From TrEMBL:
The name this protein goes by in its record: TIGR00266 family protein
Pfam families, alphabetized: AIM24 (PF01987)
Gene source species: Isoptericola dokdonensis DS-3
NCBIfam families given in the database record: TIGR00266 family protein
Gene3D superfamilies: Mitochondrial biogenesis AIM24 (3.60.160.10)
């Protein structure tokens, strides 16, 4: 598929051109427009368990395949304002945070990866989407996207709310940003410790921070006054 991204990094929109006989797979609800001869098929792609694992990973239980017999295009937009980047896979694997996968070639396998008990109890890194195979992958973020390439043994610390994706060969662990005082009073929470070699994709804004900002400003309903 051929992809053109416009409107980034604040309000990115991807136009996917389909050649005759071409197909693109989209996260449920990601389609914004279609042009030309385009048909859609909805399925779990891999059966109930794969659909369930994607749902646990923050994606839709169902995926949509958009196909064209004579050529067409599909416009793709993420739910949150931000950027879209195209990652070309040539047999390697990358791990994508929940909600980051937007679309891909049908030759790209999208499945989930259990993050382990440490991720479960910390509340971060529970499930990552494992994307592998050959083809183009569209990854969406809240805010702009930056990519850091780590040399062998080089480490990088990233707030978990800013992690978008990373190469499967990059070692990572989840920990507190500092002491409990820093975590509770300093506004710093959990961070990911990444060690190269490999790439780490980072978003310039945090969805968790957005939710906290909105929550502090939403009106509260006091049930005791009713």
């Amino acid at each position: 598929m051929e992809v053109q991204v416009e409107g980034g990094p604040a309000f990115a929109f991807a136009e996917v051109s389909l050649p005759p006989g071409g197909t693109v797979r989209l996260e449920g609800g990601a389609m914004a427009t279609t042009r030309g001869d385009v048909q859609v098929t909805t399925s779990t792609r891999g059966g109930f368990m794969k659909g369930l694992r994607r749902a646990i990973g923050g994606e839709s239980f169902f995926v949509n395949d958009f196909a064209s017999s004579s050529g067409g295009s599909v416009g793709v937009a993420p739910a949150l304002p931000g950027d879209i980047t195209v990652v070309r896979l040539t047999g390697e694997e990358i791990l994508v945070q929940s909600g980051g996968w937007l679309a891909s070639d049908t030759t790209v396998e999208v499945d989930s990866k259990w993050g382990g008990a440490k991720g479960f109890f910390s509340g971060a890194g529970l499930v990552l989407l494992r994307c592998s195979g050959h083809g183009d992958l569209l990854v969406a973020a809240y805010g702009g996207i930056r990519v850091a390439t780590l040399a062998p043994g080089e480490t990088m610390t990233v707030d978990t709310g800013h992690v978008v994706a990373f190469d499967a060969g990059v070692r990572y662990s989840i920990r507190k940003a500092g002491s409990w005082k820093t975590t509770l009073l300093g506004g710093e929470g959990l961070v990911g410790e990444f060690s190269g070699p490999g790439r780490v994709w980072i978003q310039t804004r945090s969805t968790g921070d957005l939710i906290s900002w909105l929550d502090a400003r939403l009106p509260r309903h006091d049930s005791s006054s009713s």
